[in-house]
Fold these 2 entries.
Entry 1:
Amino acid sequence: MAINNILVVGAGVMGSSIAQVFAAYGYKTVMADLKQEFIDKAFSNIDKNIAGLVEEGLADDSYGKTVKENLTGILNSDIPARGKEFDLVVEVVPENPAIKKDTYQMLSDSCREDCIFASNTSGMDVFSLTDEFLKNPERLVITHWFNPPHIMKIIEVVKGPKTSDETAQAVREVLEKCEKKPAVLNNFMPGFIVNRMATVICRELYYMIEQGWVTPQDAENALKYTDGLRWSFEGPLELWDFVGLEIPIAVAGGVLPTLCDNKEGIPLGDKYIAEGKTGVRAGEGLLKKYPADVDAYVKKRNRRILTMYKVMNEFEKEDAAE
Ligand SMILES: NC(=O)c1ccc[n+]([C@@H]2O[C@H](COP(=O)([O-])OP(=O)(O)OC[C@H]3O[C@@H](n4cnc5c(N)ncnc54)[C@H](O)[C@@H]3O)[C@@H](O)[C@H]2O)c1
């Protein structure tokens, strides 16, 4: 499955940055959206992204030139005429079943049957949604990128019941060529890997806070200064290997019967939502109050992610040299 030409359908927050990544790594990439003004906005988002990378010393002038050379924009209405050109289509339209369904119907009618379809859904079962009409469902897979895609390296590649190994492998290869870290999940399940684990951790932390056992800041620090520090070079599985399995497995035996097992929801989270304290964009969340300038917050956050990647790259080089 040779992949050279890529179509990204939906050039919004995620789609524009995803298209930038493919174009930067030499793939002939086309972004499609409903209106020309959305395409124009996507190109201006990409300009801002590139300026941020240059500022951090992570891209030079040739990066921007390569993106511009390889990236073009079209309207969704052009897809039926152009569909046969593409080897991979990445679907990044809004998280709405009717919109996703219509999009796949159009793609199924417009593209070659060997063209791979990769959905950036956050959690929708696109496999069931398209099962009755999709030609060749073996080529449908989820690729779940994290925001912002041009910075975050992890991409969850989720196989549906009919997704072929060849499809998952071809997508993995493209992502690796873009210096990403695909993690393949062989079975569609809510939350995939990352959000599933975030749910486990935060359900327990919210529970401990709700019980009055710990303050939000102390809970935050306990995780940030242990796992937060270590996970950049030694993930949870390697950590247990390092400690020696007898200890954590014995600890788990005592902890498991006492864990929160609420399957209905996270009541403390509901309380904060009802009070309008939903986080950074609302100016206040569970942990603290946040400044009004959200853009500045996002910029600082992106800079910190990039700084951590620089360190992680050094660790990876060290490991590779051993
Ligand atoms: N924003 C995130 O942090 C994030 C993270 C991971 C996954 N996702 C997923 O990525 C997908 C896109 O999210 P986003 O945040 O980029 O959304 P967005 O609203 O910023 O972008 C969606 C784009 O799709 C376009 N579009 C193309 N065809 C369309 C059609 N037929 N009908 C309506 N709109 C159409 C819209 O005009 C818009 O530009 C969703 O499935 C979302 O769940 C988002």
Entry 2:
Amino acid sequence: MDRSVVIIGGGITGTLTAVRLARSGWRVTLLEAAHIGAGSSSRTAAGIRQQFSTRETVLGMRYAVDVYKRFPEEVGGLVSPIVQNGYLFLLEGEEARAAAAARVQTQQACGLHEVELLSAQETAFRFPIVDGDRISGATWCPTDGFLRPEVVYGEAAASARARGVRIVQGAPVVAGHHQGGRLVEVQAKGERFGADLFIDATNAWGPRTGRILGGTDLPVAPLKRYLWFLGRGGAMTGPELLRMPMVITPTGAYCHPENADSLMTGLAHDAPPEPDFDNEDQDRIDAEFDHRSGVDSRAYEVWAQVADALPAVGDFAGIHATTTGFYGATPDHNPFLAYDPAVPNLLRLVGFSGHGAMFGPFSALVADALAEEGGPLEAVEVLGQRVPLAAFAIGRDFAGHEAMVI
Ligand SMILES: Cc1cc2nc3c(=O)[nH]c(=O)nc-3n(C[C@H](O)[C@H](O)[C@H](O)COP(=O)(O)OP(=O)(O)OC[C@H]3O[C@@H](n4cnc5c(N)ncnc54)[C@H](O)[C@@H]3O)c2cc1C
């Protein structure tokens, strides 16, 4: 049976979904406003972890890690994009330690047996880079790590093309045409693209795409996030830096090696929503966050927070770059992975908050299952466990939020 789908947006979500649906026998067209990877997918810290607080996210991430490890056979290319250096969450105070203990129980119940709660002494012994006097402990998962995002969307796009997917770049979708309440065509680059099913994979642009297509107005807030890059310095060698896990300090600053000479750092900071951001705003660096503004900028604040937890980083050679992009944040930090009640053949895969790169394989799996079903589904199964989809539904009450988003 010939079944066709148009996917809108060529980031990690759109390209992985394209491969998955092509494998399931769909005739796929992917429309991307600019070029593959033009959105947050090329601006991400690309951490990947299974240490989340809700069962749905932990299971989705366990599945994602498994797919990213077997990327060449599951998606394509020659290498896996995942670097499993582990994730170390440093804790301060007894309350934080108790909350972490409860999370570790949830995570282990989801099959993440390798996650551990460490005392301050154990942490400093196993990770000499950490100042053990400043913490009450840590949680550690060795199978977490970070991704090479350009490998994910680059190889996924190549694999999609090899499977017959038509990818049209420079093609912003500007209109939708409906018949009998269903979307039948979208318009981009002066051409009309008809299909049985349409998928919105535009994340931070999701509310706008929804308006264009007559969909539900989703609460997805485009929020600026910054990354800063420190040059290696002091006594740390290149191989030592390359072996560093992703570390999250008790203040929410995080870092992981970008390469043997550079440490990426970031922070969850307040930011006003920018619903009308344009493409250039993705790279706009506000003075407050720009390392070139000097030592009063937030860049230096983050460096100080990381150095408090990891004193060796205090001897690094300085900050050499600031980059930025948008989160598409929802009120409960869970994405929407669901049919749009206003347009029954429109799937919305948007609102990934801080974890859309890592969630990509799970988002694609849910899209595939919903596409096969042709309507809403209560749950999907991953790694032998049932994952209810209510947490990702449109119209949910946002009560059961994912607490572990940075
Ligand atoms: C600083 C920073 C740090 C982050 N850290 C992490 C992290 O550690 N781990 C993690 O998993 N995630 C992280 N994220 C979030 C992650 O980057 C995103 O959730 C993820 O990249 C979203 O991928 P996507 O494919 O859904 O969206 P995007 O990559 O944004 O792709 C959407 C695409 O849609 C296109 N588009 C928009 N409108 C239209 C239209 N009308 N027609 C056609 N195309 C359109 C855009 O051009 C864009 O290419 C971070 C993000 C930032 C900014």
